[in-house]
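QA checklist item 7 of 12: single-chain prediction sanity check.
[x] sequence parsed
[x] length recorded as 160
[x] structure emitted
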Amino acid sequence: MHSEIEALFDEAESRYLKPEELNVLSQYVESLPARLNAYRTLRDRELDVMQEIADQLQAQMPQESIENLERAIKNALLTLRYCATGMLLNDESFVRDRLMSWMGGTMRLYNNEAVNSLLYRLINQHFSQLLGPQRMSLLTPHLTLAQTLLNEQTPEPVVK
């Protein structure tokens, strides 16, 4: 949405905004308090919730090396922060651009598909409980986009 808002203001330089353009701007402004509230909750509770998730992940995947689990959790933290910022801006392109800049190389190096699958399921569960349905619905499109990009970047297993 951020790029949409930017485009609206570019248009407003040469003319007044049309009613439908004002509606887009109004929707953005009206949803800002809820997005700010969700963002603050994510910021303030992120480490506590992610520690719970890390503990569960390790308990459910004892065969995985600590190194793989730590790497996946660090990547998930960064991804969550990008998603939170994308939610605040209401701009999925922000998330896509940020994630594509580093995700491809990272995911090609490490095949953690099983770890990431469980990790993102736990992230969705825990943050749904923390945020509740309304605020989680603001974050979900960004998390879904991140998961889709992650799945696209995961290398295919080598068959010998």
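[x] summary fact logged: The domain at 32-153 is CATH 1.10.490.20 (Globin-like).
[ ] second reviewer sign-off
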